[in-house]
Each structure stands twice: as C-alpha cells, then as structure tokens.
Write a structure and sequence with these properties.
Helix 2 crosses helix 5 and helix 4 crosses helix 5. The longest helix has 13 residues. 44% of the residues lie in helices and 0% in strands. With 119 residues, it is mainly α. The N and C termini lie far apart (50 Å). It has a single domain, classed as Cytochrome Bc1 Complex, Chain D, domain 2.
C-alpha cells in the first residue's frame, strides 16, 4: 500500500527557508578542489597562470552566475561532485574575495547556464 502525503505537508516542506551558506566550508571546498589551479586566497603562493584568481572571479561574476557555472561540467576543470549546499558555500567564500554589491535572487531549481556563457 502506497503512503500518501498530504498537500499541506508537501507545501510546508517545499516552503522551508534555505539555510545560510557557510563561508568556512566554502574555503575548505576551495582548498580541496580549486587551489591546485586557482589562487583561492591572498596568501596563496602558487597557481596556474591559465586559471583566474578567485578575487578576479568574484569581481567579474555575480553569485547567480557562479552557482550556474558550478552546477554544470566545464571541460578544463575536474568533475566536482558538489551538492547544492556545497556550491552555495563555495560561492559565499568566493564572494568574500570580491567587491561588495547587491546580490541577485537565488537560483531557480531548474535554471541552467546558457551555453554561450560557458565557453
């Protein structure tokens, strides 16, 4: 016999507020996945000359664009199996390295990065 969930219960679950991103977790993710190529912090001494620094990325892209980019594979980066909360944490860390500005609305669940922006 299948269990049925009530509509109010389902609506309540989907309306739960998103948790705030964890900057320290984002920094650990960056150290694990990104530091081999990118300059992820001002104190880092080595990185690939072909990979932009996180400060440059933070200055150029909004949080929404960064989330979209990290959700899809990119040929020149390793396949990073990051969850949505990990992506939010990484983006929050990257944002600390750039200029302060108004942030766009959160990414919609089914939103995808247009191909023209990836290349």
């Amino acid at each position: 016999m299948a269990t049925r969930l009530s509509l109010p219960l389902l609506l309540g679950l989907s309306a739960a507020p998103a948790l705030a991103a964890d900057i320290a977790s984002g920094q650990r993710i960056a150290a694990r996945w990104c530091a081999a190529c990118h300059m992820i912090s001002p104190g880092q001494t080595q990185s690939s000359p072909d990979a932009p620094s996180f400060a440059a990325v933070a200055g150029r892209y909004e949080s929404r664009e960064l989330r979209l980019f990290l959700m899809a594979p990119y040929p020149r980066m390793p396949n990073m199996p990051l969850s949505q909360p990990e992506i939010a944490d990484l983006v929050a860390y990257i944002r600390t390295l750039g200029p302060k500005r108004d942030e766009p609305e959160p990414l919609e669940k089914d939103e995808k990065l247009p191909e023209a922006k990836r290349g």
